[in-house]
Amino acid sequence: MAAKSRDGHVWTPVGGFTTGIETDAVISPQTSISTSHNNVYDVVVIGAGYAGLAAVRDLCNQKQSVLLLEARDRIGGRTYTAKKDDFLYEMGGTWVTHHMGYLFREMVRYGMDRDLITTGSPNMEKGFYTINVAGVNPRKLSHEEAGAMQAKAWDMFVNVDGQYGRTICPLPHAQLDNPIVPRSTVEQWDKVSCQDRFEEIKHKLTSEEQGLLVSLLLHISGGNLEDSSLWDMVRSHALLMHSSDNFTDVWLRYKLRDGQTELAKRMFQEAKNDGLNFAFSTPVASIKQSASGDGPVTIRTVNNQTFRGRKVISTIPLNVLKDIQFSPPLSQRRQEAINIGHINHMTKVHADVSNKELERWNRMRFPGHLMYGYADGALPNGDVHIVAFGKDDRETFIPENDANKTIDALNDLHPMHVKRLLLHNWSTDPYSKGGPAWWRPGYMSKYQDELQSRHGNILFASADWAHGWRAAIDGALEQGTLNARTAFQENNNVRPKDNIVGNLLTRALSMCVPHSYDDIAVTRLIRGEFDRTKVPQHPVPHMMPSTGDHESKPAGGIKIINASLFRMGTKSMAEAYTILGYRTHHAIDDPFTVPWHLIEEAAEGKWPDVPGARPRRPYTRSDWDAIWGSYDVVTDVASPFTMDLAQAYPDAIFVVVQRDFDSWWSSFESEVLGWCFFRGAQPLVAIFSIFGLRSGNALRKCFLGFFNAKSLEDIKSNAREAYDRYFNDVRRLIPEERRLEHKLEAGWAPLCAFLGKEIPDVPFPRLNDRAAHTAHSRANFRNSLSLVVRNVLYWMVGVFFVGYLAWYLQGHLFSRD
Ligand SMILES: Cc1cc2nc3c(=O)[nH]c(=O)nc-3n(C[C@H](O)[C@H](O)[C@H](O)COP(=O)(O)OP(=O)(O)OC[C@H]3O[C@@H](n4cnc5c(N)ncnc54)[C@H](O)[C@@H]3O)c2cc1C
């Protein structure tokens, strides 16, 4: 017999409501911590739902030391399978489909991809559907008729663009940042509520269709129409391949034969076999890391235990995060997103009933505490199993507190004799505080990037802000997988060049088709970096010698943007920030360690008409994070993107350092442009890029884009205008209170006052005069050339060796004599 979890409620006429349900999801023993990891884990994962299980399994596979902390006594989070009288009840997430890529991969991995059963009963089509909308006589329909009525209303609702969402949400896994629809267009749609859309189309629907549509929308969103975003419906429809023909098959038909808990158990078991440490019934209370990002993250539990990890992956649901204390505090925007939370407070109730005629029955009623009822199989004793759903009725309907009201709500759907109820109230549950996340109008545009971003060494993984199947099992698996990969790569300094085979292949491909092919995409494909928004935030070493620290320390987003162009004291400023304790990026000195290919992509996304640009979408927060997410301050190479970064990091402050045009231009022209655009530069840049050195490509595209130019001549003639536009924009768009106008000669005092720092006991740095810059540039050029020459030699040796081997084999092994 399965162990009893503390979760869930069961009602019988004799016993009334009792708390706790039998499920194989309960883990025994609850704790297994090997003393050898008592110190600092590579990764601590919080939460044993699907996001957490995917993360721990992947990390343990990679031989990381991992600790899983879970508040409940069981695995599965918002999914678990209760077991009663040899019948399985899905208490949360239930329906699966092969359209869910991450989930399907797991089902295949554990041999469960064929073990599906369907909702309902055999010969369901011979059953009936009852529809009961206020003001219209209830009536009986065939399932086919009901399906057609639902499809008509739903199609009308989601067909906002005449193409069933295809033109505004072509790629549901890339909603805000896809190559087809500008972000601003998506943001406009994202503002619309389900209520707005309903008002627009309701006159085209009969009262019955209206009732059916509204109840369906409330069933899906678990909230109310005003607070529910139309976009989430359009996104859902896009996930149905933009066709309501797939509605039932994708959303409501297939279940795992052995239950969600079986899949979760197999994932957990694999992690355990690979050395997972875990502690169940261990709710986390606070997560603390040093402000500088140094050292491990400390997690304190409600029971006052402490654990430490180099990285933390929190899978704590959106509506629960406000109970956790973070130090340093979360960004203002993330905290705002958390305070608002999601709106899904749906009710789900299982009922065993003795009415055999309901075996092939479905039902909708509107309004009602329970609006949908589905017959879903028969128990071994012949009783019929009904699963029913309601919207957010928390004010008036807490099912586990009022059995009579719950049974009345079921009887309102259809008269029935209820013998047993099973339910889990996800809204009163302190570890979910709601059902599957459904967002408010405008929420995605404002908060998605922030929710998906990191906070220093804390990564956040949850179905509640997944890219594609948000609010679904697949989204949880997506998030666990992606964040585990980031944690592993950062912990192990996995950098693209570590993949020797991938690199060789990339180079070979680049040599064959250097420009007709997107060699960066090829590089990523070979390296397994399929998701461009989650390019590993592998450490970019600090350039400033005074840090003495060449390890990445992610900081949770850029805090200070040094708004200033190249050759305007950026190196001195970078050194000053470093002295003040900020992780500072100053790139121009080092062509080898900066992710130039990403900077080049950013330029292509921003200035699609720049010569040589390949089609890209504009960069968004997660992309910028991939370049500069581990820094507090950005300087030189970030300057062409100042306004984009201002949008992506709304909490950042600005230090404006402007040098007068004439003296700046003469230095910039000779010291920077000269190195990028000298006669003969073009073929050299092409050769360098074959060997993976893309700094030349990136800088040329940045400069051409920034100066709105197609050539060096254009840059020269547009220089003054671009210079003025840049500083005007900064001053016009960044409010004064977030901006310091700084002069290097003013030294520490104004800068420290603005940043709230003590004045250091060293002179304000003055570095990188013209002579020093020239020397640097020369050295970089020499280093690039010698790297190319070295690589050419390697290739020649390789070709010679292969040729020799072929000659030898031909002569000695395959010779006919
Ligand atoms: C009623 C219902 C029906 C659904 N139906 C479907 C469906 O049919 N198909 C589908 O694909 N999806 C469905 N979903 C959605 C899906 O189940 C969820 O989106 C997904 O399971 C969430 O996974 P997660 O790992 O992101 O979060 P969770 O599963 O919530 O996991 C988070 C874990 O963190 C733990 N935790 C929380 N706070 C703390 C703390 N302080 N300390 C330690 N641990 C903590 C929680 O206990 C939990 O185990 C449904 C969800 C519900 C509730």
Automatic annotation (TrEMBL):
<feature type="domain" description="Amine oxidase">
    <location>
        <begin position="51"/>
        <end position="485"/>
    </location>
</feature>
<keyword id="KW-0274">FAD</keyword>
<protein>
    <recommendedName>
        <fullName>Amine oxidase</fullName>
        <ecNumber>1.4.3.-</ecNumber>
    </recommendedName>
</protein>
<dbReference type="InterPro" id="IPR050703">
    <property type="entry name" value="Flavin_MAO"/>
</dbReference>
<keyword id="KW-0285">Flavoprotein</keyword>
<keyword id="KW-0560">Oxidoreductase</keyword>
<feature type="binding site">
    <location>
        <begin position="70"/>
        <end position="71"/>
    </location>
    <ligand>
        <name>FAD</name>
    </ligand>
</feature>
<dbReference type="InterPro" id="IPR036188">
    <property type="entry name" value="FAD/NAD-bd_sf"/>
</dbReference>
<comment type="similarity">
    <text>Belongs to the flavin monoamine oxidase family.</text>
</comment>
<feature type="transmembrane region" description="Helical">
    <location>
        <begin position="792"/>
        <end position="809"/>
    </location>
</feature>
<dbReference type="Pfam" id="PF01593">
    <property type="entry name" value="Amino_oxidase"/>
</dbReference>
<feature type="binding site">
    <location>
        <position position="389"/>
    </location>
    <ligand>
        <name>substrate</name>
    </ligand>
</feature>
<keyword id="KW-1133">Transmembrane helix</keyword>
<dbReference type="InterPro" id="IPR002937">
    <property type="entry name" value="Amino_oxidase"/>
</dbReference>
<dbReference type="GO" id="GO:0097621">
    <property type="term" value="F:monoamine oxidase activity"/>
</dbReference>
<feature type="binding site">
    <location>
        <position position="284"/>
    </location>
    <ligand>
        <name>FAD</name>
    </ligand>
</feature>
<dbReference type="InterPro" id="IPR027417">
    <property type="entry name" value="P-loop_NTPase"/>
</dbReference>
<keyword id="KW-0812">Transmembrane</keyword>
<keyword id="KW-0472">Membrane</keyword>
<dbReference type="Pfam" id="PF17784">
    <property type="entry name" value="Sulfotransfer_4"/>
</dbReference>
<dbReference type="InterPro" id="IPR040632">
    <property type="entry name" value="Sulfotransfer_4"/>
</dbReference>
<dbReference type="InterPro" id="IPR001613">
    <property type="entry name" value="Flavin_amine_oxidase"/>
</dbReference>
